[in-house]
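W.,

You were right to be curious about this one. When I first looked at the sequence I had no strong expectations either way, so I just let the prediction run and decided to look at it fresh. Below is the sequence, 96 residues in total, followed by the output.
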Amino acid sequence: MRVRRLLTSALATTALAVTSLGMVTTTATPVAADPCGFYETGSDAYYNHCTSDGSRVVIHVRVALAPDYERCVAPGRTWLGSASKIQGAHYVGRTC
């Protein structure tokens, strides 16, 4: 009878440990924030101006089958257009 209790107790302890490990391995990872600079989603193109000083900057936007242009962007994410039309964008080195 005593052996049976020890075995039951050991199995319960092992089950608890395995359950605890399972909970650790199933925690979700945080979603990454938008990257700085130019990036695309499946359908849209964006420029994310990452700054903590509130500055606005000029970017050069490359457009497929149309003239490129410059644009002043504020801190944070700016929608540039359809990913099929916008080929890229970069900071030109000046504020606006």
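Here's what jumped out at me. Residues 34 and 48 are 7 Å apart (CA to CA). And, maybe more interesting for your project: The first strand starts at residue 37 and ends at 40.

Coffee later to discuss?

I.
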